[in-house]
C-alpha cells in the first residue's frame, strides 16, 4: 500500500483535514451498515443504565462520566441521545423512558468496535490505514476510541466546536481521527464543519483544555492543559484567528474517509432532517517512545494496551 501522495499530505498539513472519496467499497459500506443495524436492534434495555452521551461544553452542562461510559474502552456499549429520553423518570420504574424505538434513540455505539466487531475491525486494523499512518509520520500508531455515530433523524445532537486532542491527549499531542461516512453527509443532516488551518497555532489551535476524569471519583470535567499544546515539530504560525464566516461545511459522500488533525477546530450541527447520518470513526495516537498517554484521559488503555496499527 502506497499511502497518501505528497500533495495529499501537504493538503492535510496546511488545512488540518483531508477528504479521500470512495475509500470504502460498496461491499464494505453494506457490511458496516448491516452490522450497525444488528447491533442497534439486538442490544438489551433490561440492565442498560440509559446513559446519555453529552460531554457538555462548559461547567453549566452535565458531562457524561458514569461507570458505563468510563469503562467502555474495551467494550461495545450504547449511548442515547438526550432528546430521545423523557426528562422526568417514570414514577413506577424510577427510570427515564425512551421516546423513540431504541434503534432510533442511540447517539453512538462505542468504544472498541475495532477489536470486537469483525466488520469494523476489518476496515480499521489493516495495511491500507497503516500506510496512511506512515505517510503522516507515525512511528508506532495505536488505534483507540472507535465509535459509530448515528446522528438520528430530527434528534441527532449537535457537537460543539472542539479538537480531538482535548479528549485523547498525549504529551506532545499526536491524535488523528479517521472518520468514515457510511451515509451521505451534508448540510441539514449534521455533517462536519471545519475551520481550515485552525490547527496551526492560532488562538484556537493550541490544546488549552482537556476532557479528563475527575480525581478520586466518577465523572469527567474539562481541565486546563498544562502540557505541550502543539504536536512535535509543529511551529506556531502567526495567522489570524478563524471566524464563523470561515467555517467550511463539508459534503461527504458515503464511503469517503475524512482524516482530521487532532488540533483542528471542527464541529457538527444537529440533524434536523428526516435522514440519518451514520459515520464510523476511530482515532490514532502515537505510541512510540517520547509520547506519553495521559493518565487522566477519560479513556484508559485496556489490558495489553491500545491496538497496534503496525503489526
TrEMBL record:
Source superkingdom:
Eukaryota
Which key words are in the record?
Iron, Metal-binding
Cofactor(s) required for function per UniProt: Fe cation
One annotated GO molecular function is: metal ion binding
Q: Which Gene3D superfamilies match?
A: q2cbj1_9rhob like domain
* UniProt KW Iron keyword: yes
**UniProt xrefs under InterPro entries:** Phytyl_CoA_dOase-like
| Protein family (similarity comment) | Belongs to the PhyH family.
**What protein name is recorded for this chain?**
Phytanoyl-CoA dioxygenase
Organism of this sequence: Penicillium angulare
Amino acid at each position: 500500500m502506497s499511502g497518501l501522495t505528497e500533495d495529499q499530505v501537504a493538503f492535510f498539513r496546511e488545512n488540518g483535514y483531508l477528504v479521500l472519496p470512495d475509500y470504502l467499497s460498496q461491499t464494505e459500506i453494506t457490511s458496516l451498515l448491516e452490522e450497525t443495524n444488528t447491533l442497534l436492534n439486538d442490544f438489551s434495555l433490561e440492565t442498560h443504565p440509559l446513559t446519555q452521551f453529552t460531554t457538555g461544553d462548559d461547567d453549566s452542562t452535565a458531562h457524561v462520566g458514569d461507570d458505563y461510559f468510563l469503562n467502555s474502552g474495551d467494550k461495545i456499549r450504547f449511548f442515547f441521545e438526550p432528546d430521545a429520553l423523557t426528562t422526568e423518570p417514570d414514577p413506577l420504574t424510577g427510570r427515564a423512558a425512551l421516546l423513540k424505538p431504541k434503534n432510533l434513540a442511540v447517539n453512538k455505539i462505542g468504544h472498541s468496535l475495532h477489536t470486537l466487531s469483525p466488520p469494523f475491525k476489518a476496515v480499521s486494523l489493516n495495511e491500507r490505514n497503516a500506510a496512511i499512518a506512515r505517510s503522516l509520520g507515525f512511528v508506532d500508531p495505536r488505534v483507540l476510541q472507535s465509535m459509530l455515530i448515528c446522528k438520528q433523524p430530527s434528534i441527532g445532537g449537535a457537537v460543539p466546536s472542539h479538537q480531538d486532542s482535548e479528549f485523547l491527549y498525549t504529551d506532545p499531542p499526536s491524535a488523528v481521527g479517521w472518520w468514515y461516512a457510511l451515509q451521505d453527509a451534508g448540510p441539514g443532516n449534521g455533517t462536519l464543519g471545519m475551520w481550515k488551518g485552525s490547527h496551526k497555532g492560532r488562538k484556537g489551535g493550541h490544546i488549552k483544555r482537556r476532557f479528563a476524569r475527575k480525581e478520586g471519583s466518577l465523572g469527567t470535567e474539562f481541565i486546563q492543559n498544562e502540557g505541550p499544546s502543539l504536536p512535535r515539530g509543529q511551529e506556531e504560525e502567526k495567522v489570524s484567528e478563524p471566524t464563523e464566516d470561515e467555517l467550511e461545511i463539508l459534503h461527504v459522500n458515503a464511503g469517503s474517509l475524512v482524516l482530521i488533525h487532532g488540533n483542528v477546530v471542527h464541529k457538527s450541527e444537529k440533524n434536523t432532517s428526516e435522514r440519518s447520518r451514520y459515520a464510523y470513526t476511530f482515532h490514532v495516537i502515537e505510541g512510540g517512545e517520547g509520547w506519553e498517554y495521559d493518565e487522566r484521559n477519560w479513556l484508559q488503555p485496556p489490558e495489553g494496551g491500545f491496538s497496534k496499527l503496525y503489526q
